[in-house]
Amino acid sequence: MFASRRSAVYREVSGTPGPLALLGEAIGEVLSRRRLIRYLVSADMKKRGSDTVLGNLWWILDPLLQMVVYVIFVTIISPRHQDDYPLFIFAAILPWKWYSSVVADGVVSVVMQAGLIRQIAFPKIVLPIAVTTANLVGFGWGLVPLLGLMLFFPHRISVYLLWIPVIAFVQYVFSIATAMFLAAANVFFRDLGNIAGHLLRLWWFLSPSLFSLDQLENISFIKNRPWIQALAEANPFAVLFTAYRTVIYGSPDGKGPPAAPDLGQLLALLAGSVVLVALAAIVFKRLEPNFAKVL
Predict the structure, then answer these.
(1) How far is 253 from 107, CA to CA, in rounded Å?
(2) Of residues 240 and 290, which shows the higher confidence score?
(3) In sequence order, which ranges of 159-262 are alpha helices (DSSP H)?
(4) Which residues constitute the domain of residue 282?
(5) pLDDT tens-digit profile of 230-246?
């Protein structure tokens, strides 16, 4: 309450606050509204039935169905040898389902609460954070079929699976930045949800999802254009998919056992994600005063 009054006074005295003031205000609102975030996460889970076994069944079935489709395509329709390919592709499908769910829910997180926003004064920045956290719970359910799948490939089971929460934390920070940007922009550009869906499909196929980065080096077109390889490696999901596969699957060719992820790449992505979160929070807080007017 005191933080809200102080920020209101600051706005009145100094006019439009600067980026650092907006960032500080956003951090203060998130920290002071932790109970509200927990309530919103719980409400979102109940709305989708995600707090029941039946509601979470889709988090178990959907990645498995996608895996079957890609396995049939790669191993039967377009034959290509890859040891234990179901596990190889599932290690990318699961985190991608989490991220795509964050994008789908995050882009409408503010717009869907238009009635509440017009009636009650509260920090809207908690909305995209809540949907991102709710989908993190879904990702946890998605680990169930992963563990079940690994029983068919027991030689891949190792202590390195304990790195999954660390990698997931990096993805969580990156996802929060995405949800904030999209939630704020969608208030003013309502077609953003449709555009984001198409861009996600393109991003999936441009990422090392059905293949590994090492396989790109064998393509003559890319071999003669090193900038394409560099661009592919700069893709955040190139880092995330590689990290997940390293601890779940092993080396890209499937010959090497699971190992620890590249901490340098993960720390670089985490640092970049923190910067993106800060920028997203500043943009969100800058646009927030106009939400009620547009909605």
Answers:
(1) 37
(2) 240
(3) 164-186, 192-206, 213-216, 220-223, 226-234, 236-248
(4) 33-294
(5) 788 889 999 999 999 99
